[in-house]
């Protein structure tokens, strides 16, 4: 099995054993996190829904990300990642949500936000939200997206295993 298969199975098992439902809100990964989970038979017990919000308009319309957040901080920021994860909860029946927003490349980076910069957030229905930044570096588009998928799965697993 590949790493992401193992991670996805672990997320599903941890969530199922605790009666938790999951939602994903993805930008640069384009649905790879949801796909990793739903590639596994029986995942519908845990996966409530996934949002692919590649454009800023989609983030606003589908997740309720504030236009002012996007204007002040940009799509690739901790603030936007947090609002994406909370929005996924607000627009679903899920207990836990993970969001991913970043710059996979090859273009689109800047000195402040280089290619390979990805922000993640995990939100829980109880109001807890945590954002995480990772700078994968300019590894190439596919490796950045795969690394982001795997980290999002790890964050979901950590949150599902956390005692509440």
UniProtKB/TrEMBL annotation:
Domain (CinA C-terminal): residue spans on this chain: 6-158
InterPro entries: CinA-like_C, CinA_C
Domain of life the protein comes from: Bacteria
Pfam family name, one: CinA
Name of protein: CinA family protein
